[in-house]
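Sharing in case it's useful to others searching the archive later.

Someone asked me privately for the predicted structure of Lysoplasmalogenase, so I'm posting the question and my answer publicly. Question first, with the sequence:
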Amino acid sequence: MMLTLFKDKKGFTVIYFIILLIDIVVKLYAEDVPFRYLSKPLVVVFLMIYYVLNNNETSVWRKRFIYMALLCFLIGDILFIETEITPLYITATLLFIVGKLFYAFRFSNQRDFSLVTLFPLFSICFIYMIVIMALVINSLGTFFMPTLIYLFVSLIVVLFAFLRKEEVIYKSFILVLIGVIVAIFSETIVLIKSFYNPNFPYHNVLIMLFYGVSQYLIVYGLVEEVKVKRKIITS
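And my answer, the predicted structure tokens:
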């Protein structure tokens, strides 16, 4: 029964977003009770099981990159529950950085790419990074370096996701790309709420919603991945 659920993409999607909704409700209305230690990890656990049962990846290492990424996010999620404890917060941030690096490794390929093609996206990412750092820099304190590294790695993940464009079918490419962009929405709200405006509207809902959607899109996109063969032109 459970295996059938994870094999049914539509059914899994419904259950996944129900779990995500439950976690958001728990976060909003039951923070004083330790229910989040169950509801929050379930989001990533379900994605891990879904990926294990449905991925078509032939490379053992590329599979391991996703397993390690999701494991880092899972542990980081648990540590982030206690956001007021600085050592846990920094450790969780470092785990998310490592998780993102594993995503970047998974998205990478062996083919050459054009720097000219990447320049517009790189410029947008760089401007975004400067704007966000300008907003929060005065409040970062000891979090300056972890935040800078986190933003840099997040933008590297976006670039690697974009480089999949010519490598995989469009559905997989666009799902993963949207996923990593939505993740940046979540991270931006976290930074603004933590270091610029603690009263950011609806932050309790938006942070977890964008995070859950991003992880779903990335994992679902990778499950749907089919390599595109380049046409060899002969004279």
